[in-house]
Amino acid sequence: MCFSLTELYTARYAKGGRGELDPATGTPRFDCWGLVMATHRLFGVELPDFHHDPEQLLAIAREFRAQRERRIWVHLGSPVIPCIVALRHDARAVRAVNHFATYIGRGRFVHILNEAGVHTSTVTEAPYASRVAGYWSYDAVG
Fold first, then answer.
1. 12-69, pLDDT tens digit by residue?
2. Closest CA to 57 of 24, 85, 114, 97
3. Among 128, 134, 83, which Cα is nearest to 105's?
4. pLDDT tens, 87-138?
5. Could you tell me the residue range of the domain that residue 98 belongs to?
6. N or C: which end of the chain has fewer CB within 10 A?
7. How many domains does the chain divide into?
8. Could you name the domain of life of the organism this protein comes from (predicted)?
9. From the CA atom positions of the chain, what is the Rg in Å?
10. Percent of the chain, pLDDT > 70?
């Protein structure tokens, strides 16, 4: 399902959410990877899905690392629109990439958090500046 940017900003967090509509409100529901997939789709880029529980931080980190080793992802020296912003977001897995966002330009990225919903942050603001683990572009051929 393809959503407009406005619809994405009204979305709410749901564990494993991939854009399913909340029956009570009609708003889409996403976890961080679901939102990354939906945001990239606005730019015409279809991303593979992660099939892990968003609370299984080390499993997510291992899967992303495995995909990088298979060269599904191309590391970028600086961000481009759109690309993945890989973050070390949770203190339970300090060195592991476990949160994802989409870079949308001018130092900004869009992401979703359970407690904050969909919002825009910058790669230079605290706490994100110290948590950015890199920028990645999808290589469908990889």
1. 999 999 999 999 999 999 999 999 999 999 999 999 888 777 778 778 888 888 888 8
2. 97
3. 83
4. 987 655 567 788 899 999 999 999 999 888 999 999 999 888 988 999 999 9
5. 5-138
6. N
7. 1
8. Bacteria
9. 14
10. 94
The backbone region for 93, taken as left when phi is positive above 0, alpha when psi lies in -120 to 50, beta otherwise, is beta
pTM for the whole thing? Answer: 0.90
Mean pLDDT of the residues in the chain = 89
Q: Which amino acid is at 87?
A: L
Q: Which pLDDT score is estimated for 94?
A: 61
Asked whether 21 and 29 are in contact (CB, 8 A), the reply is: yes
Residue bearing tokens 């992802």:
73
The amino acid present at 19, given as its one-letter code, is G
